Amino acid sequence: xxxxxxxxxxxxxxxxxxGCGGKTAEQTSGSGGGKQKVTIGTDASFAPFEYxxxxxxxxxxxxxxxAVMKEAGLDYELKNIGWDPLFAAVQGKEVDLAISGITINDxxxxxxxxxxxxxxxxxxxxxxxxxxxxNALDLKGKVVGVQNGTTGQAAVEKLLGAENKNIKKxxxxxxxxxxxxNGGVDAVVTDNAVANEYVKNNPDKKLRAIxxxxxxxxxxxxxxxxxxxxxxxxxxxxxxxxxxxxxxAEIYKKWFGNEPNVDNLLKQQ
Length: 269
Ligand code: ARG
Known about the structure:
Elements: H1 2-20, E1 26-28, E2 37-42, E3 45-46, E4 50-53, E5 56-58, H2 60-72, E6 75-80, H3 83-91, E7 97-98, H4 106-109, E8 112-114, E9 119-121, E10 123-128, E11 144-147, H5 151-160, E12 167-170, H6 173-181, E13 187-191, H7 192-201, E14 207-211, E15 219-221, E16 224-226, H8 232-244, H9 247-256, H10 262-267
Parallel strand pairs: 2-6, 2-7, 11-12, 11-13
Antiparallel strand pairs: 1-6, 3-4, 4-5, 8-16, 9-15, 10-13, 10-14
The structure holds arginine.
Arginine binds at residues 43, 45-46, 50, 83, 100-103, 147, 150-151, 172-173, 191.
């Protein structure tokens, strides 16, 4: 009798947890008043750009996207579909575009169209405070975690060799950092704002974020579209307006606490 009760409680708890841990969070904007509605995909495991907070997708990208869509006069639905599936979903036109801290590069440009750049980034090494790693060259001979299919992976492969067995690839950045905390990898290479955010928010974890401008290049993020998307011109115009109007700086300050280098960004466009 008692056993049955315990089992029922455990089962109920499991069902409740499963219900809120859903990977398919979706959120919708606007009033729907006859505007064109676009479907947008993301991988919400990349704070402070996009992450799940109390069942909602939040972050710098989410606020920026909202401002851009308002400016473009588009209604939208944002879906958390994960990093690898995101590229397939854009290519297969299951979504109209993606926002996910996605770096614009020549390789991706062969398959996708990108908006004008909206954020400058570089890579950083996340490692334990007491680690002997001081720069990117120190990663040689170490086990290094990256999110699979990211420019972080490409940067580490360039340093250590593409076939190097010491490069451990993870589905997302959250699990890569968890493996670092558990001692599975010696370092994680990820985008600088993500590394800094993690260190700042988790002082108890005793991690350090190391920059290395000699070995890590500068990159720019863009919204990613299927090739030939007719949304791109409209969205590009809206991005430029959001950057020039001061709205971009407002959102940037909310998430990063300082002023963005808007001139540098506009120079890229
Ligand atoms: N900027 C890097 C890239 O484009 C990493 C982006 C990862 N974004 C994410 N939401 N998981 O490859």
